[in-house]
Amino acid sequence: MDEGIGEVVGALKKENMLDNTIIVFTSDNGAAHGHIGSNYPLRGGKQSLFEGGVRAVSFVSSPLLKKTGYTNTNLHHVTDWYATFQKMAGDQPDRHSKPQLPIDGVDIWESVSNNQPCRMKCSSTSETIQ
């Protein structure tokens, strides 16, 4: 994997595209509980609503980051990346010729790039939790 990622980064450098690139590694859930992975010290695992099932790490690398070398503890969800990349790419959903369905995520770029809070609440299918 390291070699493959190095080749992608090398190709981006060669084509002068790295200065406008955001590299993200993320997950949508914790490790499978009791099998290959461990979520210690968190309780639960994949297919669980405990922290071990829904909390995961991410890695972001980009020259576009305003702040680097820190641990971000803000509340993000894997679906937020779509909204973030959509905005970073300059998409303007309100200008589309056809109505667009609402997306589940929120733009988290200021949170990721500058450690600013992006949301103060979590949403579930049945209620909003403050």
Describe this structure in words.
The protein is built from four helices and four strands, in the order αβαβααββ. The protein has helices spanning 2-14, 51-54, 80-88, 109-114, and strands at residues 23-25, 59-61, 122-123, 128-129. A two-stranded antiparallel sheet has the order 1-2. A hairpin with a 4-residue loop joins β3 (122-123) and β4 (128-129). Residues 124-130 have low confidence and may be disordered.
Would you summarize the structure shown here?
The chain is of the alpha+beta class. The chain contains four helices and four strands.
Shape descriptor reads globular
- The strand order across the widest sheet is 1-2
Average pLDDT rating: 83
User: Care to count the β-strands?
Assistant: 4
N-end to C-end Cα span: 40 Å
Beta-strand content bin: 5-15%
Number of helices: 4
Radius of gyration: 17 Å
Describe the sheet with the most strands. 2 strands, antiparallel
Structural class: alpha+beta
Q: What is the chain-wise order of helices and strands?
A: HEHEHHEE
Helical amount: 10-25%
Low confidence ranges? 124-130
Name the descriptors.
two-stranded antiparallel sheet, 4 strands, 25% helix, 8% strand
List the helices and strands and how they pair.
Layout: H1 2-14, E1 23-25, H2 51-54, E2 59-61, H3 80-88, H4 109-114, E3 122-123, E4 128-129
Antiparallel strand pairs: 1-2, 3-4
